[in-house]
Amino acid sequence: MKANFPVRMLLLWCSLLFSAAAGAADKTILVWGDSISAGYGLDADTGWVHLLERRLQSQGKGYAVVNASVSGETTAGGLSRLPAALDKVHPDIVLLELGGNDGLRAQPLDAMRANLDKMIDLSLAAHARPVLFEMYIPRNYGPVYADRFTKVFGELAQQRKVPLVPFLMAGLVAEHDRWFQDDGIHPNASAQPQLLDAVWPTLAPLLQHATHP
């Protein structure tokens, strides 16, 4: 699915979400992802990002969550939109869940890495803590390309010293038909708590330390 979400609409959406949550929260997490985080094919209150917000509220963490994920988004699209969103939302943590669509479109890996690297730079410049999400693509794209693709995330996280969330869907693959929608790509509603549990061990330690300088 192509990312045709107008920037003005995105900023309005971010503004409304942020305004609604800001009064009850001291800090903000910006989720910057693709269809996996946008909740493609799901009811609005069942996606892992919504479950994250509920968990943070139940634990009294004092964080608002702004989900500006766009189905079909690439790293190039995410990079082009990020400066305006950072300026609007002023997040403390940015969850960068992008790259999967680059791989599925067999985009050049050097360009993908450069886009992710620049989004890390932009987040840091905005005094936010970036968190990178590891991605995999099917082996039928060629084992050499698939291996090089996945290595980008771990190598970049190590080089930039940013937290890395292990591949979200690693625990779902063994029972694929149980956890995925009919398209075979997007996790279903039953899988969303598992996605959150995959994010939580990396995110939770950051919640006490992510503050604006």
Please tell me about this protein's structure:
There is one protein chain. With about 210 residues, the chain is an alpha/beta fold. It has a single domain, classed as 3-Layer(aba) Sandwich (Rossmann fold), CATH 3.40.50.1110. It has 9 helices and 5 strands; from the N terminus they run αβααβαβααβαβαα. A 5-stranded parallel beta sheet has the order 2-1-3-4-5, with helices on both faces. Helix 1 packs across helix 4 and helix 3 crosses helix 9. The longest helix has 18 residues. The N terminus is likely disordered.
List the helices and strands and how they pair.
Blueprint: H1 7-22, E1 27-33, H2 35-38, H3 48-58, E2 63-67, H4 75-89, E3 93-97, H5 100-104, H6 109-125, E4 129-133, H7 143-160, E5 164-165, H8 176-179, H9 192-203
Parallel strand pairs: 1-2, 1-3, 3-4, 4-5
Helix pairs in contact: 1-4, 3-9, 4-6, 6-7
